[in-house]
Amino acid sequence: DFCLSRGLGDVYKRQIHKDKNLKYSINDDEVKLILPSQYLFKSGSAVLKLSVYDLMLKITDIFAYAKGDVLFTGHTDDVSINTPEFPSNWHLSAARASALAQLVVTKGQIDSKKIKVIGLSSNFPISKVRSENRRVEISFKIKS
Question: pLDDT digit string (tens) for 94-134?
């Protein structure tokens, strides 16, 4: 695929595969970036760590290949939270996805009209290791 091998492939080679905190999958028509919450946030918080700013600035080019919406999806582990700021894991997962989406918009990386934010709480674990389930995923279809 021309898009993947030329443009998106260049972004991948330049940054994505170098960052050990970022997991990814790229196939013929979709990109999914998986950012572990412990890299993004302190425990129980939705305030982004400063290290995230550098990473997101390094991968700005990847959003040029988005066809349609870019989905920011927050996930938590199965330990319930109940604080004044986050009365449930739903609130925390949505706030974390929103924080990362807001950073991308603020830095001018993508038009805010293309962003969708979803908080899925602990409903879609990817591992038996609790910490691996705390994450924000960014996914989008690739332009042909």
Answer: 999 999 999 988 877 788 999 999 999 999 999 999 999 99
Torsion sign across C-alpha atoms 7, 134, 55, 85: positive
State how far the Cα of 120 lies from the Cα of 6, in Å rounded to an integer.
Answer: 34
Say if CB 31 and CB 143 are below 8 A apart.
no
* Cα 36 to Cα 40: distance, rounded to the nearest angstrom: 7
Locate 137 and state its tokens.
């995923």
Between the CA atoms of 25, 111, 105 and 3, what dihedral angle is there, to the nearest 10 degrees? 30
Indicate the DSSP class of residue 22. -
CA angle (131 as vertex; 56, 109 as ends), nearest 5: 15
Q: Which helix (H) or strand (E) holds 93?
A: helix 89-106
